[in-house]
Design goal:
This protein is of the alpha+beta class and 265 residues long. 25% of the residues lie in helices and 33% in strands. The chain is built from 6 helices and 15 strands. Strands 6, 7, 8, 9, 10, 13, 14 and 15 form an 8-stranded mixed beta sheet that branches. The longest helix is centred in the C-terminal third of the chain and has 15 residues. It is globular. The termini are far apart. 39% of the residues are buried.
Length: 265
């Protein structure tokens, strides 16, 4: 555990996410406001500066130069704190996901529909973030656009980072959740979809075994280190209707997905 304070008169807060206690520290109000707005925004902050923690994030903000430190090691620099936000989010993902104990991560967007989780499994650039953002924009409660956290009973838990939405390219903009799922939910549907620009909707129901394979292919964990996750993933797919294929634009996909979920209810 690290518990030292390395900067004079810092702006600090501590939060707990994914089983990890993290200390955030900076030397400017602008950087502090950035961290407070975009880093796990739905997770309560604690302002005790001497609380023990597992991970120490420090953002030094000087005129024309900002530097990001993780546990005392500089990992990135930029002209402005906002330019380090994406790197910071990546660093948190890299640090937190391996620390998960009773939960297993899958690269998947997840939203809450009629009391059940709807998963969009897939790697980066498969379009899962844009789907979650569309559901969020339409007032649907979200779990995450990046990681679905699966417990031993096969239920989905939220990974409470901001949504990261691409604007037609590789750059991603943070979008703060209006609401995030507070309780775990069983899986109702698993979609493994690939976005094809100007493509037509071509999605079919598939066996649960294929959905299970998709979850295993999209987990960041090593199977030999977490053999118990196979049972957890099996329980997740057991009650799910599973689909795979390609989709076109997100608004059309949203309508078609809701029709399928309604027909399966």
């Amino acid at each position: 555990m690290i518990c030292c304070c390395l900067m004079p008169d810092p702006h600090c807060f501590v939060l707990s996410a994914a089983g990890c206690t993290i200390r955030f520290q900076t030397n400017s109000q602008d950087a502090f406001d950035l961290l407070d707005r975009y880093i796990f925004p739905t997770v309560p902050r604690r302002l005790q500066t001497n609380e023990p923690h597992d991970l120490h994030i420090r953002l030094e903000d000087e005129v024309g130069a900002s530097r990001l430190f993780v546990d005392g090691v500089e990992v990135a620099s930029a002209a402005h704190p906002g330019e380090l936000l994406r790197k910071l989010i990546d660093c948190l993902d890299t640090a937190l996901v391996p620390r998960l104990k009773d939960l297993h991560a899958v690269h998947a967007g997840a939203v809450l529909v009629d009391g059940r989780a709807l998963l969009f499994a897939g790697a980066s650039h498969s379009g899962k973030s844009s789907l979650v953002h569309e559901f969020h924009r339409r007032g649907v409660v979200c779990f995450s656009d990046e990681y679905a956290l699966i417990d031993p009973q096969g239920r989905i838990h939220a990974y409470p980072r901001v949504l990261l939405v691409r604007n037609g390219g590789n750059d991603q903009s943070p979008v703060v959740h209006e609401s995030i799922a507070q309780d775990p939910a069983p899986v109702g549907w698993i979609f493994t979809l690939q976005y094809v620009s100007a493509g037509a909707w071509s999605v079919n129901q598939v066996p649960q075994s294929l959905a299970l394979l998709s979850l295993l292919q999209n987990t960041p964990h090593e199977l030999d280190q977490r053999p118990q996750m196979v049972n957890a993933f099996q329980r997740a797919v057991n009650g799910a209707a599973c689909y795979a294929g390609q989709r076109g634009e997100v608004a059309d996909a949203f309508d078609r997905i809701l029709k399928l979920t309604a027909s399966d209810s």
